[in-house]
Amino acid sequence: MKPLQPGIPFLLSQVGAHAAARYAERIAPLKLKPYHSGILRILAEGSGLTQQALCDLLGMFPSRLVGVLDELQRMKLVERRERPEDRRTYALHLTKAGQEMLQRLGQAAQEVQEDLCATLSAKERAVMFDLLTRMVEQQQITPAVHPGYRQMDGGCGAPPRSK
Q: Please, are residues 31 and 97 in contact by the beta-carbon 8 Å criterion?
């Protein structure tokens, strides 16, 4: 009997789960979880986002996001600032410590990437990046946002996109 050959979705899932586990191991000494990392990265690119805008981008339940932001604020990595134009909402900003932590997280991500892609040439890595980026676009996945945020606490803040 011929051995069952896994398909591309399985292989992507297998490598993705492995990469996520390796990254979580790398950042565990920093007392952070991968979901903290993603939020810090998003806030670095969009400083001043409101909690609601971040919630919409991630597709998280607002109550769950508030809890995660509270954790990051206790660690002094994120601060909430009142918005002068609407004092009912808060703008989210990385602190200096948050910016420094983001650099450490970036280093950890780079180390995981180097380990995972060690067998690939620079050209193959570029092709893989292009192919995966095209798949993200074609599947209408929010760029640079892990779909796992939508499943935190067994639910989602926004329905998955349909085709």
A: no
Q: How far apart are CA 128 and CA 97, in angstroms?
A: 33
Annotate 88-142 with DSSP letters as a single string.
EEEEEEE-HHHHHHHHHHHHHHHHHHHHHTTTS-HHHHHHHHHHHHHHHHHTTPP
Q: Report the chain (163 residues): mean pLDDT per 10 consecutive residues.
A: 86 94 96 94 88 90 91 96 82 95 96 97 97 94 86 51 38
6: how many CB neighbours lie within 10 A of its CB? 11
Cα–Cα distance, 94 to 38 (Å, whole number):
13
Contact 24, 37 (CB under 8 A): no
Question: Residue 81 pairs with which residues in a beta bridge?
Answer: 91
Distance between CA atoms of 88 and 141, rounded to whole angstroms?
Answer: 31
Beta strands in 20-115 (DSSP E): 49-50, 78-83, 86-94
Closest CA to 109 of 52, 32, 54, 49: 32
Nearest to 91 by CA among 101, 99, 83, 100: 83
Question: What's the pLDDT score for residue 156?
Answer: 42
- Is the dihedral angle over the CA atoms 67, 68, 69, 73 positive or is it negative? positive
